[in-house]
Amino acid sequence: MLYPLFLTPALKDFIWGGRRLPAEYGYETALDKVAEAWVLSCHPQGSCVVRNGPLAGKTLPQALAEEGLTGEFPLLIKLIDARDRLSVQVHPDDAYARRVEGEQGKTEMWVVLDCEPGARLLYGLTRELTRETLERHIRENTLDEVARYVPVKPGDCFFIPAGTLHAIGAGILLAEVQQNSATTYRVSDYGRLGADGKPRALHVEKALDVTTLTPTPLTTDGLWEQAGEGFTCRRLAECAYFTADRVAVTGRWACPTAEAFRHLLCLDGAGTLTADGIDYPLTKGDSVYMPAGMAFSVAGTADLLVSKK
User: Fold this and answer.
1) Same domain for 119 and 12?
2) I need a labelling partner for 266 at 20 to 30 A (CA). Which of 104, 134, 197, 235 fits?
3) What values do phi and psi take at 152, rounded to 5?
């Protein structure tokens, strides 16, 4: 029988990353830089490892398989430290991704945890374009003329449907909830060289196939907020692929039994997670897979990102 699975993340040292994730979240690594921590992942490019209980040492896919939970895992959740800006990129929807890449599409959402003064990100286009016009701006390195740049502050959230041109800017720390996909089509990488000393690959034709050519509606406030005794819950995003809430626990928050699994990421603070009569210490950086059908509560003072399919 499954129990709350505390997970060790898969860490990624992409060239634009920094050192905040090991320093602030306690992730041990020999990597010089850590761009991403995949805190909930069954992806073949990097799966989490269970660190508690009888399943300790097994990857999350292995642990779930032992309980008969196989098949396509729906979510990939990350912490991202952008010391430098990310490439301008876009992700395909399910139909295109399954036909061309053999995996899920990639709709995602971000919530900004911290940022440097003046930080901004790229979110879609400023006006409607034709495919030919967008291609010209890409080829001529004039995307800035049609890209929408948005200044950010801690707490801002962004819903990014598949097809939305986007880029995280330098000096931003954020959490990301997305479909379980690693398919990314770069349209610009500013001429940077990869670890092999060569320019990183671009995917312009595929990007043109999937990019939404009209401006994507923008809101940074989330969908709603509800205050209860001992907690406040803010719905960040809700779509066919995932639901993401930010829960500020100031006393006690109880989550009833649910049909689907839930994932808890402790963004800050500390508390006690209680499930099936067992108490588990919960601290900043902890990532916990909560099995379907398991009610639980968190007591303390903690900032949680709570996600589900």
Assistant:
1) yes
2) 104
3) -125, 160
What's the one-letter identity of residue 29?
T
Q: Looking at the structure, tell me whether residues 142 and 77 fall in a common domain.
A: yes
Using the 3D structure, point to which of 157, 179, 210 is the last residue of a domain.
210
Same domain, 128 and 156: yes
User: How do residues 106-150 score in pLDDT, each as one tens digit?
Assistant: 999 999 999 999 999 999 999 999 999 999 999 999 999 999 999
d(CA 27, CA 25): 6
- Give the structural domain span for 198: 5-210
In sequence order, what DSSP letters do the residues of 128-171 get, joined into one string?
---HHHHHHHHHTT-GGGTEEEEE--TT-EEEE-TT--EEPPTT
pTM confidence score: 0.97
Judgement on whether residues 199 and 269 belong to the same structural domain of the protein: no
Q: Which of 67, 68, 85 is nearest to 122 (CA)?
A: 85
Q: Are residues 101 and 190 in the same domain?
A: yes
Distance of CA 17 to the CA centre of its chain: 15
Cβ-proximal residues to 249 (8 Å cutoff; 6+ apart), any chain: 230, 231, 269, 271, 298, 299, 300, 301, 302, 303, 304
Please, is 84 exposed, middle or buried when counting C-beta atoms within 10 Å of its C-beta (0-12, 13-18, 19+)?
A: middle
229 lies in the same domain as 163 = no
Residue 196 has pLDDT above 90, yes or no: no
Per the annotation, the verdict on 186 as an active-site residue is: yes
Q: Which of 20, 83, 85, 186 is catalytic?
A: 186
